[in-house]
Prior knowledge:
The structure is a homodimer of 321-residue chains. Chain A has helices at 4-10, 58-76, 94-110, 160-169, 176-187, 193-201, 215-226, 248-256, 273-282; strands at residues 20-22, 29-31, 38-47, 79-89, 114-122, 126-135, 151-155, 208-211, 229-233, 263-268, 287-294, 298-302, 308-309. With 321 residues, chain A is α+β, with helices and mostly antiparallel strands. Chain A has two domains: 4-135, CATH 3.30.1330.10; 151-309, Phosphoribosyl-aminoimidazole Synthetase, Chain A, domain 2. The interface between A and B is large, with 72 and 72 residues.
Amino acid sequence: MLSEFDLIKHYFVRPVPGRATLGIGDDCALLAPAPGMQTAISSDMLVEGRHFFAGEDAQRLGHKSLAVNLSDLAAMGARPVAFTLALALPGADRAWLEGFARGLFALADAHGCELIGGDTTKGPLNICITVLGEVAPGRALRRDAAQAGDEVWVSGTLGDARLALAGYRGEVALAPDAQAAAGTRMHTPTPRVALGLLLAERGLARAAIDVSDGLVGDLGHILERSGVGATLDADALPAGPVLAGQPRALRRAFTAAGGDDYELCFTAPAAARAAILEAAAACGTPVTRIGRIDAAPGLRWTDAHGAPLALELSSFDHFTQ
Amino acid sequence: MLSEFDLIKHYFVRPVPGRATLGIGDDCALLAPAPGMQTAISSDMLVEGRHFFAGEDAQRLGHKSLAVNLSDLAAMGARPVAFTLALALPGADRAWLEGFARGLFALADAHGCELIGGDTTKGPLNICITVLGEVAPGRALRRDAAQAGDEVWVSGTLGDARLALAGYRGEVALAPDAQAAAGTRMHTPTPRVALGLLLAERGLARAAIDVSDGLVGDLGHILERSGVGATLDADALPAGPVLAGQPRALRRAFTAAGGDDYELCFTAPAAARAAILEAAAACGTPVTRIGRIDAAPGLRWTDAHGAPLALELSSFDHFTQ
């Protein structure tokens, strides 16, 4: 007798063997760690109405649910290995499950990251993924490793996801094609796994974090844990293609304190500059220098001419907003 | 600035160093696997109104949330190492968080299992734990390893949790002290970690599973994956102390197809019988032989005299019920 519960599993059990010694269908999955490597672990929970809109397209949601977890591995410089998926669903909607699985596995396969287990239950829509990766000892990009004199870098572009949210909320008026383009960044972020791996394996970056709650807040974690400060050039922050066409105040606000960017912010000694650009080119991920780490605590801003700026920004907080 | 989101984390960040190379507070936690050991991984999601009642005591819920995951490790014969906790909460209730953390950490500490990361967010109450353990290659107790001729064993007692649920639902009338005693089994199950470890390390059991959805359904997974059948003695099933005083039909039904027992069901060659009893005594966990594995598929029942019985039972399904 197959219950609804069992049926759901069938969307997620695949015949392809991977790294797992034992996969879905036992009390636990079994993985044989690569000798000498450390295991990196991260869990993220996505809740309807908070991390995504009710009625969000299932395929995009499958992508995003895994993407935000892979982004955490990228920020450690860890190689994705496997993940578990726990899913609470109001009901077993076949079209939804097919779409979700399609988006999830397309991204998982692109990163060689295997679904090894999880749980399904009835309940308000909630998606919890735990991802496992591997990284060589001493190579992980930690938050507490920034040093005064480091340069601050960010991958890709910032702010289009936040701009899309502002458009949905009616805070800004966007043309339909601009809304759609910005929305793509919000709904299907690109985890910077290849860049994170190169930065870690080649020993180029010191500290790193992924920008999920906004650059100011996330860089703030690096500053706090490293016991340092920073000075950033507000006009150097790379705006997303849609945000780039918006007024300067909005551009500054959404690049500095947006959210849902899933880019990497990292620090590195100035001597690594050329090697970083080479690594970025090798994996096809643009990177931009946006400032420097200071010994003095706190975050300071300048404009493109180096003149001090007073920016009032706050981070995107999934819990309080 | 500390948001509500940050405050929640403070209930779960502890200064005690454990196995983790890097714990809570970075993009990922880092674990250094013990050389040569395999990693066992399991995720369970608990939803209010499905796995526990609305308004459930927070301390008991903290215990149970981790217990059901440790039970999965026990069923693999894996030693608990670490876990992540993802928590969706309607709000940040300090008394609730304190109680939940107390119940969670009491059990975690008893098993040397370290909280290494996770996520907190606002949303309908949902608790998702992913647990990691370690087991020597070839020692894991899998579902697909039962062999014809094996004896079938179960740890502890069965059915009191299901009896408690029946009492809460008004399906049976229980005296207040009986309801409370049965309720303890439902709310604070005991994961059989020490027994699972001994069975695996000493090579005593072949197949194992934890009884979470009812013995019939869970043993059924072993039978299906091992390509075998079984004959069980309905009157040998060890009833919980409260259920033991109930009529025989109820006793048979709730021991065979209850739910929320979190006992271990395992199979072992008859030659291991004395060693199994010795291991059970060594860890203070009673075990009972309840039947044997047959080459012929299907599950058959007898009474205490060996006469065939026709029992109509179905498993407890968290999704469909």
